[in-house]
Amino acid sequence: MSQKHKVVVIGGGFGGLTLVKKLAYEPVEILLIDRSNHHLFQPLLYQVATGGLSPANIAMPLRTLVRFQSNCRSILGEVSNIDVKKQEVILTDGDRFGFDTLVVAAGAVTSYFNHPEWADNSVGLKSLDDALKIRGRILRSFERAERSADFQEQARLLTFVVVGGGPTGVEMAGAIAELAHHSMRNEFRNIKPESARVILVEGQPRPLTMFREDLSTQACKDLERLGVELRMGVQVKAVSADEIELSTGEKLFTHTVIWAAGVSGNPLGAAISQATGIALARGQRIPVGADCSVSGHPNIFVIGDLAAFTPQGETQTLPGVAPVAIQQAQYVGKLIHNRLNGNPAPPAFSYFDKGSMATIGRGRAIAQVKGLGMTGFLAWMAWLFIHILLLVGFQNRLLVLTQWAVNFVTQNRGARVMGRHDSWKS
Questions:
Q1: Is this model's pTM higher than 0.85 or not?
Q2: pLDDT tens digits for range 385-399
Q3: Which of 53, 136, 142, 269 could cross-link to 418 by cystine, CB 3.0-4.6 Å?
């Protein structure tokens, strides 16, 4: 009896999990490797960070998701390198696993634009750990301000700076403003939470540059109605423990800087680059061909945030968003199926853009589909519906829908809890 084709999938995010499910009925042995034990719905991380949702609402154990898929084995581990000649992936603990086909869906990490030292006094938002750090920092800032008799220190504690005007930054800034100005009202005696400052810093002239200018302008108006201060067309010069300096010379005195300004490919990309001889593209991403494979290595595929895929006839690479990862995974799954059955390869991968959405706050959002725009409550309802559908697991969908309904009616964020030792550095 011939040995089954071995498929190793690195990463249990949108791309990796979609591919595993796509191969559920294929005669293959799948090994799913992830350094976390859960699949994470990253678009809603900001709601965990601001107390709107609990971690379990947007995460589900990978073992639970593949428990009925007999051709898949899931292990907890971090891949450090790839041995191309032996066709093996190497984990940080030295374990090796062979493959016939390798699919890398390792995602991205926060980028500080050649200033790694800024990470010491800020935090990105790419994992549950990041979200819990931010939540602990925000809540502890209010608690410390309540006890402080120093008005300058109170002001510093109640100033929250979000760097980056993409969807993550805009959604985070709006959520913090709602938390401070609405959810926490009347809960303190020495301070007024509604006096908190939320400042959004963006290097481009406007936020949400992937949207039409009129939609971006509406987002600015919505943010300002929530009390968010905008600093557009401004670069960050320095980040320290108690202030952030901008290119205009302005210094914002704060203990809380949330970094949503950029991402780069997972560090595993550098190891893959060295192993395959393929130079990394901008953002430390791995260039891939029309079938999402690495040049010269037809059995090694890279999909999702780590892949630099440029559609034929275009100059811009596809963005690192969930729909791209999902569609690439579906394509690679079909390609593997065709190879196993001796069928011709499918045509080159083509991305179908279903549009973009961003929520600004309670009942406020913008959406753009094929040039058509939508704002306000209708856009917010569409955003809510799409995100509910994309959540993995019926239980999570039900819990999130219920929590959102309660939050909408009461304007209260019920997941505002933290451990005794929650801190910025933890």
A1: yes
A2: 888 887 876 567 777
A3: 136
